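Service request form, structural biology core

Requester: graduate student, group of Dr. S.
Request type: structure prediction, single chain
Budget code: on file
Notes: please return the result as structure tokens.

Sequence provided:
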Amino acid sequence: MSQDLTAYINARKLGLKEYSNYISQGRNGYLPFLDGALKNIDIVSEVDMGIVDIPLKKIRGTYTYLRSISFARNYMPLMDVDTEFAMKWQHVYNIQNRKGLSDPIKVYEYLNWFYVVEGNKRVSVLKYLDNYSYQGHVTRLVPKYDENDRDIRLYYEFMDFNKKTGINEIWFSKEGSFQELWELIKDYRPSSRMVNEEDRFRYFLSAVYSAFRNVFYELGGNSLPITTGDAFLDFLKIHGINDAIPEDELRAIMRRFIAEMEYHKGEQAVEVQKSPQLKVESGFIGRLTGRMRNEKLKVGFAHVNDATSSSWVYSHELGRMHLEHVLAQNVETVTVTGLPESIEAAPILQKMIDAGCQIIFTTSPSLINATLKVAMENPGVNLLNCSAMHSFKHVNTYFGRIHEPRFLCGIVAGAMTKTGRLGYIAPFPVNDVISSINAFTLGARMIRPDTQVYVEWMQTWNFALATPECTKRIAEQGADIICHHNTLVNRQFSREYGVYTIKREENGDYVPEKYLAVPVWNWGIFYEKYIRSVLAGGTRLGHDPSSPGTMRNYWWGLDSGLLDFFYARTHLPVETRKLIELVKSAIISRSFKVFTGPIRDREGRLVVEEDEILEHPQILMMDWLAEGVICSMPESRGLNPLSDLSTGKIAGS
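Core staff response, request fulfilled:
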């Protein structure tokens, strides 16, 4: 009696279809093989990993060329039905169906992909049956570290993570992600008391990652332009780790999460509003909304610090007080301070909503994860985050073009310096700080082309603690003017702000002598216009998760009044004042753009071509410093990397 080869015939059809598809594209249709790929690779060690549970999707190919031509790239068989190969394949299939395969396969692992040495038919059968994983004896081939090879750098990060956790199923497309995931899970303890300490990461993989992956694929997440690992890391940053969440609840959360990510396929427009275009006069909808709303609109402000210790928070509090003053009949405001710079801020934001807040402004970029989580869970409320690096469906972001008044500060400093050496005290090398340093330097060198700007990084938000030492180091370089804080507010917690000359006191300390200029944030301008637009019906409350639309970011400049620039008329010559007013007017009228080429970086490379004008994305994503800047870049970026999301990366122009 001849053997029934039905399964093999069906599998071979899948293989032939895959093979033909690749051949029609002019590509090799056979299974990849490792032996050829390693010819020019320097393997520095082979590590016996023992028996490992291998995700079948991570098995990319076989070891030798002769074995590779038996299979298509999807690991389905290609050999004729009347061959011994076909009969053996069907035999393996029958064993799997009757009692299940048990003998481990033998594989090499290279760059977190697996290549089969023994057991190709078993892998083919298991892939045909859509199994998730199978055990194999793994030998890891470790390539020589190459700083210039991104794939190898990423692989070395994976090996470190794999050594700590034993997890090999999760892979990222971005460097640093393995360390971020480790920071999230290093202290993970399973909710089940039955799990031993040594099994906690295996349990995490099963109870958290696998649960996420299954629902992610079920809801179509695999069609998104983001890897499962990247999506999973974003999910943990926003929602935290929960290994006991019911499947129905997880599915509901995931629907909102995937709806957010779908806005970043490139199909949805991102509007970067660069000047006020908010409707502030009531039309029919606004009048109708006003009649329906008997109570005042409750608006919340959430801060990481408080107004007595942070000039940044104080400036936002001035904006809140302005809002409450000009719209006293329509608006009630509340303030919450001291929020943690993590997902732990989410319950506090939720309490604000439960207390009646219909709009909440979170004033620190480090609150974006918590803001996004709460926004997705409360679609009837508007949450806005004061940042510029992301675009979201559920959260609008708002910020200012601070580089514009910084450029004017540079003009003042360049005109007033006697030594041609200036100082710049900066907190961390984050997006708006880098562009501000460059703008300041360009302004100074427009007046005095040989100007050098010495940057000192505080590496802390405690300005009072770090400023004296930074000032001393700058002064020792011969600088006579320093640029520091950008907000002119309560000076009880800081004497150093804006652009000022320095003097040395008898005790050797350097302190401000003459204040020359300062950029100023007028957040009340934004808050008033936004809330008036809501009251008028021009900006609606709430989000419809099912409806397409435009993501909006607000990025206003000097022309909006959100930012202003003050200078000391008594200390500046008439000619300098005239120049400042001329340039300021040109910036406001948009006839002059700060970052107009040619611009060279501090290594002398041309980074902005002549007449080229940098726009929103290029300015916010600057990773270079302008010619004339002298500093060493600190290792730390200053912000918690766990707040940085793959989802919603900066987009638009």
